[in-house]
Recover the amino acids of this structure.
């Protein structure tokens, strides 16, 4: 039984295969529209995440399958104190595959330990969210036709941003990648990523505080939100928040083929004026999220077009 | 020099970091041991200055993984007929179960108490163990 709990559960080859299938789905959607006929995906969401849940449901429906599930803990047996393991044992009787979102770290692993059907981790607290990472990889591959030999800029909250940590951890497996880490001093990348991921794999990286200077070097700019609650005082927040807002003035520093990515939802870290720039691919990224989930469901259920 | 009666059959747990013998005593449940147990604190040791030693009479089952986890510098000498017949060098176990508790409040083990508490050896050089569920590093010495 194969599950997907962590982006690194998939080898580089498997990830590449998945991307290839997702790109084929995007080109030839009709070929895949009945692939998961008579199969059921259960979305077990212990905390609301409408975007992620809809993306999974859309993926299954586009494969010709059906969906059921719950979207918050209060409406499920979890509110009566049932363990994750028991819930999954029961839901596994009603479905062929489960996508699970849970506020606690490691919940998806617990689910996978006794599950009779494949588990997809749709986010376990601040720990892992592998389909987000796969979506990012597909988007990079779509626009750059490769995952190696790229300079990736990541900007914003690099300290608490799980998305960024997972993306860096997944990308260091490809040769020739470089990182430019742009953040305020307070929100620099944590030691665990700097030492155990970047330095350990001899990945070149620089840490800077100003976006404009380094933008010309980037193939990809991955933006994240700088959240108010991460700062000790309002003054620091106000001083720093606007510094990283991406607008057309800053986009002048970027090369013509640099792409701008963002996991969404954005608040104000990317000006709306950037949306119409062809280099802004964050809404396409959301679209890719459906294709990669389709490819993943097929892989875990052993389905072929 | 304190005189300790010679062991016929048993163990000499040597090179325990000075001050930690009671941790080992508790970890191995030696209070339940009916045989003779001698605890030697602050013995002189060329290598590390001071060390603790525990001598246990009787060849009971000793959880070597647990000892390795607490301190892999410890050596376990097996005594039979008053002679050392074996020195068991300790290695860091790759996985430990229900020995330590994850302290991460966001970890699933915090809400589901029945789950087995499992830690795996994540970095052999730095001797870092991580929770199997949330991957938070275990703080040593708890
Ligand atoms: Zn944990």
């Amino acid at each position: 039984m194969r599950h997907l709990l962590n982006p690194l559960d998939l080898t580089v080859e498997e990830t590449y295969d998945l991307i290839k299938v997702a790109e084929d789905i995007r080109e030839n959607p009709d070929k895949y529209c009945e692939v998961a006929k008579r199969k059921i995906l259960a979305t077990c969401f212990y905390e609301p995440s409408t975007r992620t849940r809809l993306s999974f449901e859309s993926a299954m429906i586009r494969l010709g399958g059906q969906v059921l599930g719950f979207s918050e803990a209060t409406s499920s047996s979890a509110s009566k104190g049932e363990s994750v393991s028991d819930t999954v044992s029961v839901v596994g009787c009603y479905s062929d595959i489960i996508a699970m979102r849970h506020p606690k770290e490691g919940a998806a692993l617990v689910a996978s330990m006794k599950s009779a059907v494949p588990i997809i981790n749709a986010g376990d607290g601040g720990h892992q969210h592998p389909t987000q990472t796969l979506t990012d990889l597909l988007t990079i591959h779509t626009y750059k036709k490769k995952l190696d030999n790229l300079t990736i800029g990541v900007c914003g909250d690099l300290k608490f941003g799980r998305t960024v940590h997972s993306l860096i951890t997944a990308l260091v497996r490809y040769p020739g990648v470089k990182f430019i880490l742009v953040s305020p001093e307070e929100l620099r990348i944590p030691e665990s990523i700097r030492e155990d991921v970047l330095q350990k794999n001899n990945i070149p990286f620089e840490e800077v505080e100003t976006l404009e200077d380094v933008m010309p070097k980037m193939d990809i700019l991955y933006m994240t939100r700088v959240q108010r609650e991460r700062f000790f005082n309002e003054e620091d927040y106000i001083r720093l928040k606007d510094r990283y807002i991406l607008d057309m003035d800053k986009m002048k520093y970027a090369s013509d083929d640099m792409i701008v990515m963002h996991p969404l939802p954005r608040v104000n870290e990317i000006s709306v004026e950037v949306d119409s720039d062809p280099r802004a691919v964050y809404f396409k990224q959301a679209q890719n999220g459906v294709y990669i989930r389709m490819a993943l469901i097929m892989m875990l259920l052993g389905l072929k077009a | 020099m304190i005189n300790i009666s010679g062991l016929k059959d048993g163990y000499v747990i040597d090179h325990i970091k000075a001050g930690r013998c009671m941790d080992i005593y508790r970890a191995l449940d030696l209070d339940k041991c009916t045989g003779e147990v001698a605890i030697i604190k602050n013995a002189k040791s060329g290598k590390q200055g001071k060390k603790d030693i525990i001598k246990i009479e009787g060849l009971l089952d000793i959880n070597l993984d647990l000892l390795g986890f607490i301190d892999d510098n410890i050596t376990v000498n097996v005594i039979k007929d008053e002679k050392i017949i074996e020195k068991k060098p300790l290695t860091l176990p790759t996985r430990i179960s229900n020995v330590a508790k994850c302290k991460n409040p966001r970890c699933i083990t915090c809400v589901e108490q029945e789950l087995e508490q499992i830690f795996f050896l994540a970095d052999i050089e730095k001797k870092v163990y991580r929770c199997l569920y949330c991957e938070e590093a275990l703080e040593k010495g708890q």
